Amino acid sequence: MARDYAARCPVSPVRSTWLLAATVLLFARGIAAQKVRVEEELEAYPTESVELRCQFIDGGGRTKLTQVSWIWEPTDGQRDNIAVYHPMYGQSFPNTDFKDRVVFLHNSLENPSIRISNLRMSDAGRYTCEYATYPSGNEQGTTTLTMLAKPKNSAKVVTVQAGTKSVVVAQCEAADGKPAATIKWLASVGGNHSTSSTNGPDGTVTVRSEYRLVPTPTDNGREVTCIVNQRTQERPWDHAMKLSVEYPPSVSIEGYDNNWYVGRSDATLLCLANANPEPTTITWTAVSGPLPDTVVVDGNKLMVKKVDDAVNTTFICEVKNKHGSSKTQISTLVIEERRETTPGPSSGAVIGGILGVLAFIGIIIGTIFFIRKRQEDGEGPPKHKPPPPVKASSSTEMNLDDETTGALNGGAPPVLDDSAKYDNVNELTDHNLDPSNHEPPAANISRGESFVSPAMFV
To answer: Biased-composition ranges for Basic and acidic residues (predicted)?
Structure first.
């Protein structure tokens, strides 16, 4: 019903202006009525000091101040007086927790500001400066004190064994911070993290984060970084760690070159193991039985002092660590004479050859392109304007007298066209060079003469 009335009776612009003016007036009167001036919010750290300022503003000077008190209201507790000042009876500090840590900065009712020293996290809360006045009664102003705490950051790796299940491989913690910190991870391995927080009795928060993955031998030594962000830190805190993944050994034997000839003295085999932690034992054995007398073992190295038929066998290398053991074997073949080996081309020569071939191909492609370009330019239209064509004339027209020819040319001297001249020359040349043409040239016949030969009488 109220909505229908508002729809039928909209507020006029004049009425809106009066409402706005009334609101501003009430707000101004509220400010004027606020006679106790304090700071609304303050921030501080443990073990430091903070000053809570308070001042009574009396424009008319008609208010009589009787007493001032500072009342502390903790975040989750009851109100309690911590400091009282009376102009006749002096100072009083009723709360024993603040008694040795609170002092009045000025021995005055008009400015009863206090200082709290050796702050604790539990000191956070609302502090009210309250006046007992006459005749208006009590006047007060409240300051909210927020306690901040820098977190104690730490991070560590967790040594794990390679397996098929997701486990915690790194941990990061931001302890006793306020406000609570946020933890992020930067990692080059595939994994995920979980975060939890715990509230302390003094209002601080401890945040813990764990990074998890399914560890494999290739993850050992990979790097993960914990990043902590918190309001009290000038910049994010970060700590890089290398994962520690333990796994049983994997073994390989190197050094055999298929050229163990009789009498050779520098034949050597190396037993290489990939393990974490490092192998505890490395054992060399032979399939044929005990190691030959010409064989010397030094850790992972098996050396043959002189190759003979006794080392024509299969050698076995076994490696152990606390997570297990692994072994591999290699068969060595003794030959009578040394096998000459031809060294292959070096990598530098191979690379140089490839570059040379590429350069040669580039030269060929460039040459072909240049030739085709020249051909296209030669087949294009002529760059000069050719002379106009001239109608070929008969031999009888060529025998016209100069006067007739001049008349035909408008009285100018006769002009012989160059193209016609060159065409006649070419015709004569072709006629003279043709060996099949042995007929004498035809005689010139003037106009009016007959082309029929006269009769011959016998």
So the answer is: 428-437
Query: Pick from 219, 243, 267: which residue ends a domain?
Result: 243
| Residue pLDDT, tens place only, 420-455 | 444 443 443 344 444 444 444 444 444 444 444 444
CA distance 173 to 207: 6
Strand 260-261 versus strand 334-335 pairing type: parallel
Burial of 92 (0-12, 13-18, 19+ CB in 10 A): middle
Q: Are 37 and 137 within one domain?
A: yes
Q: Are 284 and 314 in contact (CB under 8 A)?
A: no
Helix (H) or strand (E) run with residue 199 in it? strand 192-199
Q: At 281, which CATH number? A: 2.60.40.10
Last residue of a domain, one of 103, 125, 147: 147
Question: Regarding predicted confidence, which is higher, 145 or 389?
Answer: 145
CB 238 within 8 A of CB 310: no
CA angle 325, 224, 167 (to 5 degrees): 55
- How far is 414 from 421, CA to CA, in rounded Å? 14
- Confirm whether 436 is domain-assigned: no
**Whether residues 217 and 296 fall in one domain:** no
**In which domain, by residue range, is 258 found?**
247-335
135 and 95 share a domain? yes
Look at residue 395 and tell me if it is in a domain: no
Q: Using alpha carbons, list the distances in angstroms from residue 349 to 90, 260, 352, 361, 443.
A: 100, 29, 5, 18, 83
What pLDDT is attached to residue 162? 95
Quickly state the pLDDT bin for 22 (edges 50, 70, 90): very low
Residues 278 and 330 in one domain: yes
What is the rounded CA–CA span in Å between residue 395 and residue 108? 144
Classify residue 360 as exposed, middle or buried by CB count within 10 Å of its CB (0-12, 13-18, 19+): exposed
Q: Is there a single domain that holds both residue 43 and residue 129?
A: yes
Q: SS3 of 181, please?
A: coil
**Residue 15: predicted pLDDT:** 45
115 and 39 part of one domain? yes
CB atoms within 10 A of CB 362: 10
pLDDT tens for each residue of 256-304? 999 999 999 989 999 999 999 999 999 999 998 899 999 999 999 999 9
- Count up the domains in the chain and report the number: 3
What's the rounded Cα separation, in Å, for the pair 274 and 217?
9
Q: Which residue has the higher pLDDT, 226 or 360?
A: 226
Is residue 77 in some structural domain? Answer: yes
